[in-house]
Specification:
Distance between the termini of chain B: 51 Å
CATH superfamily of the largest domain in chain A: Bira Bifunctional Protein, Domain 2
Number of strands of chain A: 11
CATH topology of the largest domain in chain B: Hypothetical protein af1432
Largest interface: A-B, 48 and 49 residues
CATH topology of the largest domain in chain A: BirA Bifunctional Protein, domain 2
Number of helices of chain B: 26
Shape of chain A: globular
Radius of gyration of chain B: 36 Å
Helix content of chain A: 40-55%
Number of domains of chain B: 5
CATH architecture of the largest domain in chain A: 2-Layer Sandwich
Helix content of chain B: 40-55%
Strand order of the largest sheet of chain B: 2-3-1-11-12
Number of helices of chain A: 11
Structural class of chain B: alpha+beta
Largest sheet of chain B: 5 strands, antiparallel
Shape of chain B: flat
Largest sheet of chain A: 9 strands, mixed
Oligomer: heterodimer
CATH class of the largest domain in chain A: Alpha Beta
CATH architecture of the largest domain in chain B: Orthogonal Bundle
Strand content of chain A: 15-25%
Structural class of chain A: alpha+beta
Number of domains of chain A: 2
């Protein structure tokens, strides 16, 4: 047991504490996204919401799949699928670092007894044409959080920018519980019987079986085929938008009337950018499987990344346009909504 | 004479950027004060991860007033019948004085009216408030960001500003933040605001009370802490590491050091791996025992005042244990596939997008190394073919290992360690296997001008072959380094080639090496994108010329005129250039060479001027009736001595050759004393020019003496 805390949190308590902390500071609590992603950043709650002028605060747990990182459940520190708790603060409040440190106190870390450092670590995701600057937060030499000020996403310069806090839940929990293997983390403890369920009880089979699938069993040809199909579908949607915004009028006979009454806006709002993004995420995940499988040659690799990026950039642009159409009053002005001082003084946005 | 203080409070600035930015800010403040005539006493800087500050002692409270005379119209225009004209009124108004106050001044052009005006000096506060934002916004950062408005940029968000003249706040605003007197203390130890009572040293004292120390104090405290922590282990010493020390100094505001311990069992892993994990990944100092062997301890530098409960040590030990476990796991996993079995996997590792995979590179480097071995063999340098061939084959296979994927800085080293640990081929004698391992281990060396070259000849050839292949490919694609842009570190690699050739005295010519390297890409996909061969040779020659010049000057320390003289004669054979430079250095002080240098300059000028006028020298010098005595003597000298100099030169015995050349001073001086070259008689003139040309040519085979700096003569 970590002597800093006589009663360390279980894995699920850790999640609950962090969620409560951020909910109390105005965040929407989202649920994990139900399409495979490599990081919490790829969930639409981050990738899309950081675009455009609308302020947003959200927190969610995101299981993140990285096929190449699988270790068949044999390595105590590495996982094919790990869990991130992702917080997006758009725009970042002026005291965002202090808020973050308070969140550590909320999970039982007394900073006066520990060593905390913010060390330079800039984040970049070429497949998403996204980057930001920030730090890895080090607690007694352990990287517990990625702290990033987004600057660009989907090739779009961000205004306002967002702060992204990505907590590595397994690492933090193993630290709190002072265990050397992720699989020994107590996930849940029955309050009546005191019996525990460990991380390994819940996740070990996933790690083994998905490692077998990703490294050995995945059918390369079929995976390529899936990739091509998802890509084609996604691209077709984006291309149709490119041809004409009117392409998205309702397909019923009433189409013409609706279009005449409301000009372009409803058609654009109907554009299924969210569905297109799901298809793009599928491509990204399939690419990762092919990569883990060693099925992507040198010459192909750069090209395939560029194909996924093209989808992401097209979707980002469509989303921004759609947001503008949704906000006819003041599409470029985030300020008005922000000017009112909010109840919680700690959350004064940087814009004031 | 108030003291000035400026502090920019910022979220954590990247450690690697603090020193340069802090220095730049100080320089900018010095320049601003001087530009605005406000300079006072000493200007010092103070920086931590969360602030850059500048303190200027006793600056001017305001600029001095400037009295000056403005000259107006001439007196004739300004006065008619003793009365001021409209021109005089207009001038007085413009100058801001009464017409009655106008004066008369006499100039060489006549009498003019003038106005004495006083330009009022502005206050320091006003000037600084106006000038500093521009200085702050133009500080160079390798990477900056915006957090509110895209035009407000800094390395990380600015959160507070202190700007004061003595006790007064300067009304400064930067990135929407107004300056005040409020600073902040250490994040954890003094999480309070700190009111700075006044500019001056009291600023440093105020921060010290809030657990914030300046750079020198931090370094001192860290060294003391490391020493104290190490003393708890008998006979132990911490390994000095300047780069690491600089990093931890700039990661802390109030540092302390603790000693941690790791399990002895990890000492079976190679020291290279353990030290890399500690230093590069955890920023720990390594500890060695009395024999210089790695001890199972580490030193961590904390940004807090201590670890009374041992919690922090416990945490660091836990992280290191996981890291070492990982490393061991990678090591063991990697052994499941030998390096040889990994060769095929290199097809999936990109070398460069147009230049193909590391598999392709391996094949090219293998061929190039065989070729280099042949060239060296002709120069009587024997490369063991069995060693170089296998080493080149295995050199890059460690890129597919888990250990290198995790610790990229260990590339090459890991390959060498694995080659040592694995049975590469049962038929190989043990000595050959170890030689292969060493060559692979060393083949990224030298990583800098200070770094050693590979230990073995095979390691040297492999290192040259690998680097030459990269440089040739990049140059052929037109990816030539320019200015600060050298993303593939081609300059460093070329410096490495020059250093290896020089120190191992290899008979290789740079142009031939690079030509062979380029031909390794023959019939590859990449070749379609290559620039023309001539352009390639040209840019390669220029590039390596600069590298050789760098080596001779910066690494060997030869004077620039020696380097230039030597390189003008030949810049392709590195070893030869070094030998000639050394010989030249030894004779340079002799008065004979001072004279010969001047004479060579003179000959070159005469020949150049003749060429400019279209005057051709004769095909060759001949004795003709008009030949002067001194002319004949010089020719005779040349005929007598030339072959002996050439004989020495061809044996690369440069010092005797140069000493022989020194005897040329007398005939040359006499020639120039008595003989006029550019005479009217075309025949005589052409003949004399031919003689000069021959002399200059014979003299320039070792060094171009006309490049030498001679005393007293241009």
């Amino acid at each position: 047991m970590n002597p800093s805390s006589s009663n360390p949190l279980t894995f699920q308590e850790l999640i609950l504490r962090l969620q409560t902390f951020w909910a109390e500071r105005g965040c929407v609590l989202q649920q994990p996204y139900d399409v495979e992603v490599g990081a919490g950043t790829m969930a639409p709650e981050t990738f899309l919401r950081v675009l455009g002028p609308k302020p947003y605060k959200v927190a969610y747990v995101q299981p993140s799949r990285r096929p190449a990182d699988g270790r068949y459940g044999e390595n105590p520190n590495r996982l094919f699928k790990h869990m991130q708790l992702q917080v997006i603060l758009k725009p970042p409040p002026e005291n965002v670092q202090e808020l973050y440190l308070e969140s550590l106190a909320a999970i039982g870390i007394d900073l006066r007894l520990h060593d905390i450092k913010f060390e330079e670590d800039n984040w970049e995701a070429p497949t998403l044409s996204a980057w930001g600057v920030g730090w890895q937060v080090m607690l007694d030499g352990l990287e517990i959080t990625q702290f990033t000020y987004f600057q660009q996403c989907g090739g779009v310069d961000l205004l306002p920018i967002s702060a992204e806090l990505t907590y590595g839940l397994e690492r933090i929990c193993a630290f709190l519980q002072d265990v050397d293997s992720i699989y020994d983390i107590v996930w849940a403890r029955d309050p009546e019987t005191g019996s525990v369920v460990k991380y390994g009880d819940i996740r070990l089979a996933d790690e083994l079986q998905f490692s077998v699938y990703n490294f050995e069993a995945a059918d390369v040809e079929k995976t390529w085929e899936h990739f091509r199909l998802y890509e084609a579908e996604c691209k077709a949607l984006i291309d149709r938008l490119g041809v004409s915004e009117k392409a998205w009028q309702p397909e019923t006979g009433a189409g013409k009337e609706v279009a005449a009454k409301t000009k372009n806006v409803p058609e654009l709002t109907r554009f299924p950018v969210l569905a297109a993004y799901d298809l793009c995420l599928k491509c990204s995940h399939l690419f990762n499987i092919l990569d883990a499988r060693g099925a992507i040659s040198v010459t192909e690799r750069v090209g395939v990344i560029a194909r996924v990026r093209a989808l992401a950039v097209g979707i980002a642009k469509a989303w921004v346009d759609q947001q503008k159409a949704d906000l006819p009053a003041s599409p470029d002005e985030p300020e008005p909504a922000q000017k009112k001082p909010q109840k919680n003084e700690k959350l004064v946005p940087a814009a004031i | 004479m108030p003291d000035f203080l400026l502090e920019i409070g910022c979220e954590e600035i990247p450690a690697r950027m603090i020193d340069a930015a802090s220095q730049e800010l100080r320089d900018r403040v010095v320049a601003l004060l001087s530009r605005e005539r406000l300079s006072g006493g000493e200007v010092t800087r103070f920086d931590t991860p969360r602030r850059l500050a500048v303190m200027a002692a006793g600056i001017a409270a305001s600029q001095a007033d400037i009295n000056e005379h403005l000259t107006g119209p001439s007196v004739n225009v300004a006065y008619k019948n003793g009365q001021p004209t409209p021109a005089a009124h207009a001038f007085a108004k413009k100058a801001g004085v009464e017409v009655a106050e106008l004066e008369r001044i006499t100039t060489p052009k006549g009498e003019y009216v003038a106005a004495k005006v006083t330009k009022k000096g502005r206050s320091a506060a006003e000037i600084l408030a106006e000038g500093l934002p521009k200085e702050l916004s133009t500080i160079y950062w390798p990477k900056n960001m915006y957090w509110r408005k895209p035009n407000e940029r800094f390395v990380r968000p600015v959160r507070w500003l202190v700007a004061m003249l003595d006790e007064e706040t300067i009304p400064l605003e930067f990135d929407s933040i107004r300056a005040g007197k409020t600073s902040r203390g250490h994040r954890i130890l003094s999480n309070v605001t700190v009111t700075i009572p006044a500019a001056g040293l009291v600023y440093v004292d105020s921060l010290r009370r809030a657990h914030v120390l300046g750079r020198e104090e931090r370094e001192h405290q860290i060294r003391k802490g490391l020493d104290a922590a190490t003393r708890t282990v008998a006979g132990a010493r911490w390994r000095e590491d300047k780069a690491l020390l600089d990093t931890v100094v700039n990661l802390t505001e109030f540092p302390t050091a603790i000693l941690g311990t790791f399990d002895q069992q990890f000492l079976v892993l190679p020291e290279e791996v353990l030290v890399t994990v500690m230093r590069d990944h955890q920023k720990y100092f390594a500890v060695e025992d009395a024999n210089g062997k790695l001890a199972p301890h580490f030193l961590a530098v904390l940004n807090t005042n201590g670890d009374p409960q041992g919690l922090i040590r416990h945490g660091h030990e836990r992280v290191l244990r996981a890291r070492f476990n990982d490393a061991r796991f990678f090591w063991e996993t990697d052994q499941k596939r030998s390096l040889l079995e990994r060769l095929d996997s290199l097809k999936h590792v990109t070398f460069q997008k147009d230049l193909g995979s590391y598999f392709d590179k391996t094949q090219r480097v293998q061929r190039l190394c065989s070729w280099l071995s042949e060239v060296l063999k002709q120069g009587e340098v024997a490369v063991r073919p069995g060693v170089i061939h296998k080493a080149a084959c295995l050199a890059k296979t460690d890129l597919t290992t888990e250990l290198v994927k995790e610790f990229t800085e260990l590339q090459g080293i890991v390959g060498g360690l694995y080659a040592r640990a694995q049975q590469l081929d049962p038929t190989l004698p043990e000595a050959t296997r170890l030689a292969i391992a060493d060559a692979v281990y060393d083949h990224y060396k030298p990583e800098s001008t200070e770094d050693d070259v590979p230990r073995s000849l095979e390691g040297a050839v492999l290192s040259i072959g690998d680097k030459a292949d990269t440089i040739a490919g990049m140059f052929a694609l037109g990816l030539v380094p320019s200015g600060s842009k050298d993303p593939f570190a081609l300059r460093r690699q070329a410096n490495g080639i020059v250093k290896i050739i020089a120190e191992r005295k290899l008979p290789l010519r740079l142009s031939e090496l690079m030509r062979d390297a380029r031909s390794g890409y023959h019939r590859s996909q990449a070749e379609k994108k290559f620039i023309a061969g001539e352009k390639f040779s040209e840019s390669i020659a220029t590039f390596f010329r600069e590298r050789l010049e760098f080596y001779l000057k910066e690494v060997c320390g030869y004077a620039y005129d020696v380097v230039k003289a030597v390189m003008n004669a030949d810049a392709d054979d590195v070893v030869d250039a070094v030998q000639r430079a050394e010989a030249l250095k030894q004779v340079l002080h002799m008065p004979e060479f001072q004279a010969i240098g001047a004479a060579c300059k003179r000959m070159r000028n005469i020949l150049r001027q003749a060429a400019e006028k279209g005057i051709e020298p004769a095909a060759r010098f001949q004795l003709i009736p008009q030949s002067a005595d001194e002319e004949k003597m010089l020719a005779a000298y040349l005929e007598r001595t030339g072959p002996r100099v050439e004989a020495d030169r061809s044996r690369k015995e440069y010092l005797p050759a140069l000493l022989l050349l020194a005897t040329a001073r007398e005939p040359i001086d006499r020639f120039f004393d008595k003989v006029m070259v550019m005479v009217e008689d075309e025949h005589v003139r052409a003949n004399r020019l031919a003689l000069l040309r021959t002399v200059l040519k014979e003299f320039s085979t070792i060094a171009d003496f006309s490049e030498m700096v001679t005393e007293g003569k241009a």
